[in-house]
Amino acid sequence: xxxxxxxxxxxxxxxxLAAIVNTVIALLKGGAFFFTGNxxxxxxxxxxxxxxxxxxxxxxxxxxxxxxPTPRFPNGFGRLVNLVCLGAVIIxxxxxxxxxxxxxxxxxxxxxxxGVAITLSVLAxxxxxxxxxxxxxxxxxxxxxxxxxxxxxxxxxxFANLGRAxxxxxxxxxxxxxxxxxxxxxxxxxxxxxxxxFLQAEGIASIMIGIMMFYVVGKVFLDNARGALxxxxxxxxxxxxxxxxxxxxxxxxxxxxVIKEGEYLHVEIIxxxxxxxxxxxxxxxxxxxxxxxxSQQGVTDITISFDEDDGIRTWTQHKDQRTVLKTRN
Length: 329
Description:
The protein is mainly alpha-helical and 329 residues long. Helices cover 64% and strands 11% of the residues.
């Protein structure tokens, strides 16, 4: 039990915060829908329920992914967070479908909703809370990629670095971006329906919210499917290649792999060196390179092998500062 609690303490904090906030929001929206019958509120309620369940599962998955390797699972549990995210998007996909169907039904058979003041108040509260979570998720993205920005950076710079964020943080950011946008859309739809009599506006908003939810489903599914299979981190691969190549003892890099293991990176490298080095000297070179690579963001595991320099250049650095691996003939 103590080990489980320790794992949960190390879970993804933005996903836990988002799960709690979205649970509160879902209850508020559910109450508002019960009293008003507003279809846009129904769409937002379904969205919040999906987000809360999704983010709670992601928090559990991110916690368990930090479990140490065991004899039965020697490669660890890093990819577990990807598998959990894949399962979680199924929930969002089902709720997205229901949201679109309900919106289409309202367009065909529009009905006037009551309690506009309640609806708008709940939506306003939800938008503020979702925005807070979105902002914190943006800050977490910047923290994970090692960027210090201005007060607005979590809402600007975070988009450019979204691909480098951890799977759980990326999921929270995308879901709350859609949730905040969907809340604003529902708010506008309620105003249009109330003041113009165009009752179908709420149904149209519901369909648009469902489509945005489906976009998140597709994006998260593809990202985590690649992660579950073991995707190469191209940016970190190039970065590590530069670092290792700068070591004066390294003659060539015969092989380099940087594989994403959930939130972490596994590095495997084969380095060519002068065959005249003693075992003790090679061990010192290995320790220096290992320390250097492990100090990089996200790297938790590394396998280093050595081979004698054969005089054939395998790893080539080009003028455009990109490093590529050329296949041996």
